[in-house]
Amino acid sequence: MTRIPFIGGNWKMNLTPTAAVAFVQKIQPKLPPRSAVETVIAASPLFLTSMQAVQGDGPVQIAAENCFYRDEGAYTGEVSPKALRELAIPYVIVGHSERRKYFNETDDIINKKVQAVFKNQMTPILCCDETMGRFENGDRVSWAVGQVTAALRGVSATDASKLIIAYEPSWAIGTGHSAPSQEAEDGCYLIRQTVADLYSDEVADQTRILYGGSVTDENIKDLMAEPNIDGVLAGKASVNPAEFLKLANFETLK
């Protein structure tokens, strides 16, 4: 099955509303068509509507970095998935290692968020990670696979086939130390096999699996050449328009 490449950017707590609008305006004319490469920027909820206003019919899509697992209620400071749906947000990042580390999000919370995103007719970008300690101890496989399995409890095969999973070793995020392409491929392959075991080979073939962790224009071609890596979720490289454009146009890089 042909899976459309997915080049995603996760801005985290960076940029400002004015800079976000200027970013979208700058990259739009230079992006590949959505039918060839899907480009997505996940930004702060403060920026979403202003970014959408200049997005128009251009290739880039605007995503959310996070949401809560309830549609509404007394949850001060949280982002409602119901509200994101009304904004026509297509994707929501769920389970990023920083949410797990700094905000103590458990597998159970992440599972609730996955189901809430699907309930509101959006698609989760489900992140799974591994720590350097587990990497060095050879325990990275069961760690990442366990997170995927826990996050997909109660998720139907129909929804799972739409899912995007980002394999993001936390020891590589923001460190400048990207996983070698073969190690990234091994992780993505095992995640795809996990989806196949949970559902079917057909569902696994439809699921797009990304790599994230110190992605640059110097390593993206090698990563994208791997059969089980369908795209990337970049952090640092995504807040610079010129760098993000290099990632989006990876096929033309020398």
TrEMBL record:
Enzyme Commission (EC) number: 5.3.1.1
Catalytic activity as recorded in UniProt: D-glyceraldehyde 3-phosphate = dihydroxyacetone phosphate
Tell me which UniProt keywords the record has, alphabetically. Cytoplasm, Gluconeogenesis, Glycolysis, Isomerase
Localization recorded for this chain is: Cytoplasm
Q: Which EC main class describes this enzyme?
A: isomerase
Major subcellular location class: cytoplasm
Q: Which domain of life is it from?
A: Bacteria
HAMAP family (alphabetical): TIM_B (MF_00147_B)
Quote the subunit structure annotation.
Homodimer.
The entry's function note states:
Involved in the gluconeogenesis. Catalyzes stereospecifically the conversion of dihydroxyacetone phosphate (DHAP) to D-glyceraldehyde-3-phosphate (G3P).
Would you tell me the protein name for this molecule?
A: Triosephosphate isomerase
Q: Which organism is it from?
A: Fructilactobacillus florum 8D
